[in-house]
Design goal:
The protein is 1% helix and 37% strand. By secondary structure, the protein is mostly beta strands. Among the domains are: 70-157, no CATH class; 231-327, Immunoglobulins (Immunoglobulin-like), CATH 2.60.40.10; 351-431, Immunoglobulin-like (Sandwich); 456-528, Sandwich (Immunoglobulin-like), CATH 2.60.40; 551-629, Macroglobulin (MG2) domain (Immunoglobulin-like). Strand 23 and strand 24 (373-382) form a beta hairpin. The relative contact order is 0.07.
């Protein structure tokens, strides 16, 4: 007896199957892929409709339960552990031919659990619907086992064909967009393998276009039939010793001429340190590179350099022949042209050296030159390629002076950090012209005319000044000097040293001390006010204890460890003012005390060790003291 059983499952996947009749012997196994039917909507995966169980066809009986493999058809014959169907729309089956009245009843086993009884009786050629709630979203081949009971039997399946979406109409479809159907849907083809379904020039067997970066024939290779063009360093660079570690090296020597319309768009340099085998890959938009573009440039070191080129949109995938380059030995350097032989405008102006690539430190040897001879020399080590004169120690810093500079550098080599074996050529730098102090308001001929002996007379300010030295002289032989950290004085200060003649013109000069050296200023005439001889109110050197208008201050102890006090001898009861300056001219404190309480005051507890100027004033009397804290 021959019966035809038609399993119609839309979206059926059975690659390689055709519509055939299979003759069945004593026992046979039929393997098929059963997928979701048309009535299952909004689900794009392949679905297993049912796990068939105990379907009795006369004269067929199952070898065992009819079931599907959920995993590989060769490794698993367990019941489906995942749900079989989730839909309330029903799953439809078309039953072809006439079934004999089954000897039992129809059962469907779902999810190794619930059994649905379709009942017994004849199932004519019509649609039968199963309503369920389980679905299986695993696609693939499924296995059904049958056993021949009596007679000759054919099992004649109608199977679905896999179709591939062909969006670009080149006859090859997209392997990632497939359908299973009995008839070919529009926009689908039976052959897949199109690696770019948006481009109809890309498909299996297409002609490969060289150097465009596109795999036209979808075989995973970009250069089918295309020449591989490599590059290497130019002949003048290959095997050379670099003149400097940052020397430009060029890598556009090609293995063959570039075809028409082909351009070298980018270069890839593979650099290997031949002593350590460290490797760096450097990609450049042109054929030029320098070792200092990497982080492992070292002096006196051999490197191997290989070059790969990208032609148009395609890297060749191969480096050209390797070339060796050798970096130079440890270099020295010199002052930059912008600093060599230059007179700086300020002491802290930057003095620059010629940069040495990859240098770790610079050693500046600086000598003070007087009369063409180096009288003082010092050394400054810095990580940068610049310095200024104020950073030097162990050498005099003078204005209007010559400083001769020589430079070494420290670099990284294969054996560690090394200094240049010799200095670079020396070159001189000149400090600024000497500052010239002057008296503020001094006219060219008239000079200054203070209104009184106590009027303040100022010198012009100068940065870095620590002392001012005022000298007052007269043709009569008067010649007195006052040194102070203040840039001002009073004629009464000189009058206290030696009486001034009222109405007489004296010559006044001022010198300023900067960085430990005095520099002369401009002369200025000064007219002593008054028309009769002036009797001084005080003399700082007066020793008598009973002279009228006596004014003398003494600091004790001096030098001092913690603090000092002032002993003031004065005939006045006016308040006493104290002003204290450090040696840079910075005012530290000012205070005013009653004359009879000054001796009780302790001064200088907060000061660090150093030299200080103390100005004691009472009315028109002023005295400057110098104290030292240990």
């Amino acid at each position: 007896m021959r019966k035809s059983i038609l399993f119609l499952a839309l979206f059926f996947v059975l690659i390689g199957y055709t519509h055939t009749s299979i003759s069945v012997g004593a026992n046979f196994i039929k393997r098929e892929s059963i997928c979701g039917s048309k009535e299952i909507t909004n689900i794009n995966n392949c679905f297993l409709n049912t796990n068939l169980s105990n379907k009795y066809f006369s004269p067929f009986t199952p070898l065992s339960f009819v079931f599907d493999t959920i995993n590989s058809i060769e490794t698993s014959t367990n019941w489906a552990s995942e749900s079989v169907m989730q839909t309330t729309n029903g799953v439809s089956y078309t039953l072809a031919g006439t079934f004999f009245t089954p000897t039992g009843f129809v059962k469907f086993r779902k999810d190794n659990g619930r059994i649905v009884n379709w009942g017994s009786g004849d199932l004519p050629n019509r649609r039968a619907t199963q309503i369920g709630e389980d679905t299986l979203s695993i696609s693939g081949l499924r296995t059904i086992f049958f056993k021949r009971q009596t007679g000759d039997t054919n099992f004649e399946p109608i199977v679905l064909t896999t179709y591939y979406q062909d969006s670009d109409n080149d006859g090859y479809g997209n392997n990632n967009v497939v359908l299973e159907a009995i008839t070919q849907p529009a926009g689908y083809v039976t052959v897949g393998g199109d690696c770019d379904d948006t481009n109809n020039t890309v498909y299996p067997t297409a002609f490969e276009i060289c150097f465009d970066g596109i795999d036209q024939n979808c075989d995973g290779h970009l250069n089918d039939g295309c020449p591989i063009i490599t590059a290497q360093l130019r002949a003048e660079n290959c095997g050379s010793t670099l003149t400097s570690i940052d020397q430009v090296v060029r890598g556009n020597r090609f293995s063959q001429p570039l075809p028409a319309g082909v351009l070298a768009m980018r270069y890839r340099f593979k650099i290997t340190n031949l002593l350590t085998n460290a490797v760096r890959i450097l990609e450049r938009p042109n054929y030029i590179f320098q070792l200092t573009y990497t982080d492992f440039a070292e002096y006196n070191t051999p490197y191997s350099v290989e070059v790969e080129v990208r032609l148009n949109q395609e890297w060749m995938g191969s480096y050209g022949p390797a070339c060796t380059i050798l970096t130079p030995d440890v270099p020295n350097t010199v002052l930059a042209s912008t600093s060599c032989g230059v007179t700086v405008s300020q002491m802290n102006n930057i003095i620059r050296a010629v940069v040495v690539p990859a240098a770790i430190n610079y050693e500046y040897e600086v000598s003070l030159i007087e009369g063409g001879i180096a009288v003082e020399t010092t050394t400054l080590i810095r990580p940068g390629e610049s310095f200024n004169l104020l950073q030097l120690t162990g050498i005099s810093i003078k204005y209007a002076s010559e400083y001769r500079v020589r430079i070494k550098v420290q670099v990284l080599t294969p054996i560690g950090l090394l200094w240049s074996t010799q200095h670079g050529a020396s070159c001189s730098v000149f400090s600024p012209p000497a500052p010239e102090a002057a008296i503020e308001g001094c006219g060219a001929e008239i000079g200054v005319t203070p209104a009184s002996l106590t009027a303040l007379i100022f010198a012009t300010p100068h940065g870095g000044a620590t002392q001012y030295r005022y000298r007052l002289s007269h043709v009569s032989g008067y010649d007195q000097v006052i040194t102070t950290s203040s840039r001002y004085f009073r004629l009464s200060n000189f009058n206290a040293l030696s009486p001034l003649m009222p109405g007489e013109t004296y010559s006044l000069t001022v010198e300023v001390q900067i960085y430990g050296f005095y520099y002369p200023g401009k002369d200025c005439n000064i007219l002593v006010p008054g028309g009769v001889p002036i009797v001084p109110f005080t003399k700082a050197i007066l020793d008598s204890d009973n002279v009228m208008n006596e004014f003398k201050a003494v600091a004790y102890p001096n030098p001092f460890n913690n603090s000092f006090a002032l002993d003031l001898k004065t005939s006045s009861t006016n308040p006493v003012s104290i002003a204290i300056y450090d040696m840079t001219g910075r005012l530290l404190e000012t205070n005013e005390y009653k004359a009879d309480s000054l001796a009780k005051q302790t001064i200088g507890e907060r000061y660090p060790a150093g030299v200080y100027n103390v100005i004691v004033s009472q009315g028109e009397n002023i005295q400057t003291l110098q104290v030292v804290k240990k």
